[in-house]
Design brief:
The protein has 408 residues and is mainly α. The chain has 17 helices and 2 strands. The protein has a single domain, classed as Farnesyl Diphosphate Synthase, CATH 1.10.600.10.
């Protein structure tokens, strides 16, 4: 069977210009609100009769409602379900930390203010744990059995965010000051280290037969993430003409694609998939991760700060070699020359608009959008290898589309 070709809808610019295409998910039967299944098909945590836990006929709810098995399930509902599934596990893990580390972690996740009072903040989109759970369900596994693995992946993701914010000197994340600006560099780094340890402990204490393989795979992924982050920071010290597209694509795969691939692979392991299917899921996640990073870089330059929660053009101000920038620099156009001159010296106040225009005129935005579509096509090919039935793969398809339809 053939998977539908995903449409890529690019984010609105700061003037609010809408995207130009709808994805196939937006043309599906919508008999209920976004993220809700068709009548009689519960979303995630319950049965058709509205009960939770097990179902009236004795079947475990996980077998009935695994996200990868829902007809026309959209990403919003899958992400909501994943967040609700992993947050209790995350809170239990974080509550086990010493007080000094716990308060930073709770602040970072948006669950507490800096003074320790409760907050109803934004803990993130839960894309990675959603991939774990949805991959498990798509291959016939019980996603409840993979919740600890999903939480472990989310802890690793947030460990990298805490460290990245320190290294990049980013001052805002999820519409609030970053942890290092509130608690200091050292404490934010140590909180990130503690989160990585919690992730490994969750898998070490998991009785599932796949937990050992999952722990090994996640540890290897962390090494790759560190390699990607090192490459990213090293590129900042090199001249505009010294970084190639191949290098920056390899960096993006290691820094972003690796963890999305690992999340999908862990889902396969917890479903009892064979090695070939697990590797195909990893490849699917990596390609989707590259599409994710391409769109993230586009949003970082042209996105609306009120939606992204980050200051406009922060990467350009920091002279980061993001994917659209390196593509623009390699274009051989007059705008590329102008951009190289701008990037050859530290940022000066008032040059942001000129830099944004130079990237766009040199083709950086168009290249990134076309590359995102290409990577999504490759991701769909890999997904079809692991899960040939498009209906069973529907949840993963919805999540893959989400990463190229988002605007924040």
């Amino acid at each position: 069977m053939t998977f539908p070709t995903p449409a890529v809808v690019f984010p609105p610019d700061q003037a609010g210009t809408p995207g130009t295409r709808r994805s196939p998910a937006e043309t599906l039967d919508r008999r209920g609100p976004i993220g809700k299944p068709k009548e009689g098909r519960p979303l995630g945590g319950g049965c058709a009769d509205g009960t939770g836990g097990g179902c009236a006929d004795g079947r475990p709810m996980d077998r009935q409602v695994a996200p990868g098995q829902l007809d026309g399930q959209e990403a919003a509902g899958i992400l909501e379900y994943a967040r609700a599934s992993v947050d209790p596990e995350l809170r239990r893990a974080i509550d086990s930390l010493p007080g000094s580390m716990r308060r930073i972690a709770l602040y970072h996740f948006g669950w507490e203010h800096a003074d320790g009072t409760p907050a109803a903040g934004n803990a993130g989109k839960a894309i990675r744990p959603a991939l774990v759970l949805t991959a498990t369900g798509a291959l016939g596994g019980q996603h409840a059995a993979a919740v600890q693995a999903a939480a472990a992946v989310e802890l690793i993701h947030n460990f990298t965010l805490l460290h990245d914010d320190v290294m990049d000197r980013d001052t805002t994340r999820r519409h609030r000051p970053t942890a290092w600006t509130v608690f200091g560099d050292a404490d934010a780094i140590l909180a990130g280290d503690a989160m990585q340890a919690l992730a490994q402990r969750l898998l070490a204490e998991d009785s599932h037969p796949a937990s050992q393989a999952a722990a090994a795979r996640l540890a290897s992924c962390v090494v790759e993430l560190c390699e990607g982050q090192h490459a990213d920071t090293a590129m900042e010290k090199r001249g505009p003409a010294e970084v190639t597209l191949d290098e920056v694509l390899a960096m993006a795969e290691a820094k972003t694609g690796a963890l999305l691939g690992c999340a999908c692979a862990l889902g396969g392991l917890y479903a009892g998939a064979d090695e070939e299917d697990v590797d195909a899921l990893d490849a699917f996640g990596r390609e989707a991760g590259l599409a994710f990073q391409l769109i993230d870089d586009v949003i970082g330059i042209w996105g609306d700060p009120s939606r992204t929660g980050k200051p406009a053009g922060a990467d350009l101000i920091a002279r980061k070699k993001s994917l659209p920038v390196v593509a623009a620099l390699a274009s051989g156009t007059p705008a590329a020359t102008e951009l190289a001159e701008l990037y050859g010296v530290p940022y000066e106040e008032g040059e942001l608009e000129r830099t944004v225009l130079a990237v766009e005129r040199a083709g950086g935005r168009d290249w990134a959008q076309l590359q995102a579509a290409d990577r999504m096509s490759r991701a769909m090919h890999e997904l079809s290898r692991a899960i040939p039935d498009p209906e069973a793969a529907g949840g993963l398809l919805a999540l893959a589309e989400f990463v190229t339809r988002r605007s924040n």
